Amino acid sequence: MVLDAPTQILTTADEIVPTGSTDFAQPDWQQAMRLAIRSASELRRVLDLPPGDATTAQAEASFPTFVSREFLSRIERGNLQDPLLRQVLPIREENDVLDGFGGDPVGDNASTIAPGLLQKYARRALVITTGVCGIHCRYCFRREFDYSAASKGLSLQSETWQPAVDQLAARKEIDEVILSGGDPLTLSDLKLDRLLSAIEAIPHVKRLRIHSRMPIVIPQRVTDRLVNRLRSGRLAAWMVVHCNHANEIDRGVEIALSKMIDGGIPVLNQSVLLRGVNDSIETMESLCRRLVDLRVQPYYLFQLDRVTGAAHFETDVKFGVAIIDELRNRLPGYAVPQFVVENAGKKSKTPLS
Question: Domain spans of the chain?
Answer without folding.
Answer: 9-95
